[in-house]
Amino acid sequence: MDKKESFIAAFYGNCDLVVRPVSEGVTMFYLDGLADEKRIAKEILAPLLEKGTSFRTESQLLSLLQFAGNVRFCKEENEGVAAVAGGDAALMTEEGYFIFSTRKSNSRAVTEPPTMSVIKGPREGFVEDVKTNMVLLRRKIRSNRLVFLSLTIGRITTTTVVIAYVHGVTPQKTVDEINKRLSEIDVDGITDSSHVAKILEKRPYSIFKQVGSSEKADVVASKLLDGRVAILVDGSPIVLTLPFLLIEDFEDMQDGYKMASLVTFTRLVRLFGAFFALFLPAAFVAVQSHQYQILPLQLMITILNATGGIPFSPTLEMVVALLLFEILTEASIRMPKHVGMALSVVGAIVLGQTAVDAGFLSSITVLIVAMSGIGVYTVPDQAGEIGFLRIFMALCAGILGIYGLLLVTLAMLAYLSEFSSFGVPYLSPFAPIEGKDLADAVVKKSFVDRYIRPFSLSTNKIRLKKRREQ
What we know:
single chain; 470 residues; alpha+beta; 3 domains; five-stranded antiparallel sheet
């Protein structure tokens, strides 16, 4: 079997492999639809057919062509096969293979991300093409200090994974550790950034989110400037960011484009919303089952009147109501858009009212669950964690009352305090307390007053050299 036949055999008879003989001993290979055929014909094949194929080195070949992209040379057949499978074109000669970067970009247009509605700020969202995403970041950070490192992960998929960071701002040890962990991945395939996130998580069985993510280029750019690392995966519009801190999910992507005082108020609203979503159902169960004497007499009479005749215990009633809410949420998300909206209305109004009228649930339980459910979505990125924890805490409160609720809270805080994300404490800047970072965690500072970067994330602390004159 000669060299040409061996290369063709490596593709197991694929019908989309294009084999274009150029001259004796010189053949062009590429995949139909994946490589840019017009560019190959105009910039490579036409000059070769016109000027001849009398070349032996890369420089001699480039002098004959009008190709402006990247060209590299390899001698091994498996490298040439991998390049063609990835969308490049390979020119086979007696010496080896010249690889031309001719991948065709068929990604969708850059639009506003469907999962992140924008009122103020840029509307550009990442797409599935990693090169387009790199360009979006380059447009935000136009500096040679923005560094991209490319890796190939997956024995079968050979997915391109790119590590992005700002040199001199991001700690090099963080970059090296992430690069090492990604390089050690040995798996058949990676088809989405969520697979990479699962591999990077130090506690894969924890319910708490450990890797940040975003679909907005401006959000990722600001995180890079804070000293984080971004991970772009070809085929996914979700870009990962590390290290990840819990406080990030309480900060909205539009906080940087609003008045600082208004942002501070909305952050407090999110914190209170998450607090009520997490503790309100459990506190109600604890008081109703064990510590009812702490309630004012009039409120206790109101609760007794509302819950009289319910066949379930307060704990079971609350857990059933919370599970019904989770079922409705999952159903509305997975149904078609217009049907899902109708299902939400029917589930929230008709089903809830019918359950109360039938004596299956009490009206005050439905009210508590509704208030808690609204609070969950003040922090949508933590909806899954809060949804699970509030059911668990309601069960513990039903067994031990307020003491059970306090024990679970202390255990959760101790567990999270032990967390770290690539050397950065998960609860930073609250545990341990970092005074200079604490000022911008909940209380939003004006842009001109944020003259230092987060101490826990970056090596270069100075963001703005000259502060605003008073």
